[in-house]
Design a protein that fits this description.
- Helix content is 73%, strand content 2%.
- Helix 1 crosses helix 8, helix 3 packs parallel to helix 6 and helix 6 packs antiparallel against helix 19.
- It is globular.
- Strands 1-2 form a two-stranded antiparallel sheet.
- It starts with 16 loop residues before the first helix and ends with a helix.
Length: 518
C-alpha cells in the first residue's frame, strides 16, 4: 500500500522529506554522469574512437542530417503520452512508462562510450560510424520517451510556487556542487587507473555511475506523489488540437524561442575542452593566487593535465556560485522571475564578452595571462549559476499552469517533447558547426599532438569559446521582453485551478479505494 500511494489526497499537501530525499539523491547521481558526459562526451567521436579526419566529417554530416528525425520521433512519443490518457490508479499516467524505459535508456548511454579503438583495434571507420549512428537512433527513442514522461511527472509534484522554488533551489545547489565533477574525475582518474588509456578510464567510471543511478531513479519515481492529477477517464484530444493550443500559448512560445536561442550558448562549453587541450596541454607556467595575503598559494602547471587545469577554473567559481545559489531564492521573493531571467542572460553576455576582450589579441598574450583571464571571467559568471538552475524551470512550470487555465489541458509531455525537438535540431546544427569548425582549423589532425597545432587554430578556439555564449545570451533576451505572465498573474491562475485539481484527486483516490474494497 505504501508503494502504491503515489497520488496525494489533498492538492495542498506538502512535499514530504522522503520525497525531497529521493529527488535529491537521484538528481545528485544523475548530475555526476551528466557532468562526466559533458566533459568527455565531445571527445568520444573526435578523439577516443580513432576515426580518421574524413570519417569524422562523414559521421558529423550523417548525424546532422538524421537529427531531423527528432521531429517525427518527438511527435510520435508526445502524441502517445498525451493521447493515452489512461491513469494507472495511484501510479498516475507517467510512472509506468518511465520505469519501462529506465534500463534500456541507461544501457544505451553506456554503449555510446565504448572505447572501440582499444577494445576492437581491427574495427574500421565504416563499422565505427554505423555503430555510433545506430546508438544515436536508440538513444533518441529512449531518451525522448523517458525525459518527456519524467518532465511531466516533475511538473505535477506540487502546486505551491514556494515549494517549486525549494525544489529548484535544491536542484540548483546539487547541480552546481556536482556540475564540475566531470573535470575533477578527469583529473584524478589517471591516478586511480594508471594502466588504462583515457578512453578506457572514462568508459569504466562512467558505466559505474550510470548503473548506480538506476536504483536512485527508481526510488525517486516510487516516492514521488502527484498533487496535480487528471480524472481517471479523460477523452484524448486530437494531436492537431494539442499543437494549436500550444501555438496559442503566447508565454510558452516566447519562452521556448528564448531557450532555443540560448542553446547556442552551449557551443562555448563544447569548445572549452578543445581550447584547453590546444592552448595549455603542452605549456608550463606558475600562477600565484591571492598574492601578498594570508591565503596566498601558487599553482604549478607542468604535466600537461588539461583536466586538472579545468578543475582549477571550476574551483575559482566556488565563492561566486555559492553566493548565487543562496541569493537567487531570496531575490525572487521580491523580483519577478522574468526580470531575473533577463538579468542572468545579460550577466552572461557581459562575462563572456569581457573574456574575449581580455584575451584579444591572442598573439600578444602569454598562456598564463590567457588562463587567468578565462578563470576571472568564468568565476564572475558563477554569479548567474543559481539563477540558471532555478528560474527557467520555474517559468516553464508557470507556463504549464497557464495552459491548464486557458485550455483545460496541461500536455506536459507534448510541450516537453516539442521543446526537446526544437532544442535537438538547434543542437545538431551547433554540433555540426562545431565539428566542421574543428576539422577546418585542423584540430582533429593535431588532437594527439597539440604542440604542432597552428597558432591560428588555438586563437580561433579561444575566441569562439568566448564569443558564442555572449552573442547567443544577448539574442535570447529579445523574446522575453514580450513575456507577460508575471508572478502575480501566475498566483491568480494557480488559485483558480486549485478547486478543479482537488476534484480530480478525489476521483482518483475514490476509484482506487473502491478497487481495493472489491
Amino acid at each position: 500500500m505504501k508503494i502504491r500511494n503515489n497520488i496525494a489526497t489533498d492538492v495542498n499537501e506538502k512535499i514530504t522529506l522522503k520525497e525531497y530525499a529521493a529527488y535529491g539523491s537521484s538528481t545528485a547521481v544523475s548530475r555526476v554522469y551528466s557532468a562526466m558526459s559533458g566533459f568527455f562526451g565531445a571527445l568520444v567521436a573526435s578523439t577516443y574512437l580513432g576515426l580518421s579526419e574524413k570519417a569524422f566529417a562523414v559521421y558529423s554530416t550523417v548525424i546532422f542530417v538524421l537529427g531531423f528525425w527528432d521531429i517525427a520521433n518527438d511527435v510520435i512519443v508526445s502524441s502517445f503520452l498525451d493521447k493515452n490518457r489512461r491513469t494507472f490508479g495511484t501510479w498516475g499516467r507517467f510512472k509506468p512508462w518511465i520505469m519501462l524505459t529506465l534500463i534500456p535508456f541507461n544501457l544505451v548511454l553506456i554503449l555510446q562510450t565504448l572505447p572501440i579503438k582499444q577494445f576492437f583495434p581491427q574495427a574500421g571507420d565504416t563499422f565505427k560510424v554505423i555503430w555510433l549512428v545506430s546508438l544515436y537512433f536508440l538513444n533518441d527513442a529512449f531518451s525522448t520517451f523517458y525525459n518527456a514522461a519524467l518532465t511531466a511527472l516533475n511538473a505535477r509534484r506540487t502546486t505551491n510556487n514556494l515549494e517549486r522554488g525549494y525544489i529548484a533551489g535544491m536542484d540548483s545547489i546539487i547541480g552546481t556542487a556536482i556540475g564540475s565533477t566531470g573535470t575533477y574525475i578527469a583529473a584524478f582518474l589517471p591516478m586511480l587507473m594508471p594502466n588504462l588509456s583515457e578512453a578506457e578510464r572514462y568508459f569504466y567510471s562512467y558505466s559505474f555511475v550510470v548503473v548506480l543511478s538506476i536504483p536512485f531513479a527508481f526510488w525517486n519515481i516510487i516516492a514521488t506523489k502527484e498533487r496535480i492529477a487528471e480524472p481517471p477517464v479523460v477523452e484524448a484530444p486530437k494531436l492537431r488540437d494539442v499543437y494549436k493550443k500550444i501555438i496559442k500559448n503566447k508565454p510558452l512560445v516566447l519562452y521556448m524561442i528564448s531557450e532555443i536561442l540560448g542553446i547556442g550558448f552551449g557551443i562555448g562549453y563544447s569548445l572549452m575542452t578543445y581550447a584547453f587541450i590546444a592552448c595549455f596541454r603542452t605549456e608550463t607556467f606558475h600562477i600565484t593566487f591571492f598574492e601578498g595575503t594570508a591565503i596566498e598559494f601558487t599553482y604549478h602547471y607542468t604535466d600537461g593535465n588539461y583536466a586538472a587545469l579545468m578543475s582549477v577554473a571550476s574551483l575559482a567559481t566556488f565563492v561566486t556560485t555559492g553566493i548565487s545559489l543562496f541569493v537567487a531564492p531570496v531575490i525572487r521573493k521580491w523580483v519577478d522571475d522574468k526580470i531575473l531571467y533577463i538579468g542572468m542572460k545579460l550577466g552572461t553576455f557581459v562575462c563572456f564578452i569581457g573574456m574575449f576582450l581580455s584575451v584579444y589579441p591572442y598573439e600578444e598574450k602569454t598562456p598564463q595571462h590567457i588562463f587567468l583571464m578565462v578563470v576571472l571571467w568564468w568565476a564572475l559568471h558563477g554569479l548567474t549559476t543559481g539563477f540558471y538552475n532555478t528560474i527557467p524551470g520555474l517559468l516553464q512550470m508557470a507556463i504549464y499552469d497557464y495552459g491548464e487555465y486557458k485550455f483545460g489541458e496541461r500536455n506536459e509531455a507534448t510541450v516537453s517533447a516539442l521543446k526537446g525537438t526544437l532544442s535537438r535540431i538547434i543542437s545538431n546544427c551547433t554540433t555540426y558547426m562545431t565539428n566542421l569548425f574543428l576539422v577546418y582549423i585542423g584540430y582533429t589532425k593535431f588532437a594527439d599532438t597539440p604542440e604542432l597545432m597552428p597558432i591560428e587554430a588555438k586563437k580561433s578556439l579561444i575566441y569562439m569559446f568566448a564569443i558564442f555564449p555572449g552573442a547567443f545570451s544577448l539574442l535570447s533576451i529579445i523574446p522575453m521582453l514580450f513575456y507577460k505572465l508575471s508572478g502575480k498573474r501566475h498566483k491568480e491562475i494557480v488559485k483558480a485551478l486549485e478547486e478543479k485539481r482537488q476534484h480530480s484527486l478525489d476521483e482518483i483516490n475514490a476509484l482506487e479505494t473502491n478497487q481495493i474494497a472489491q
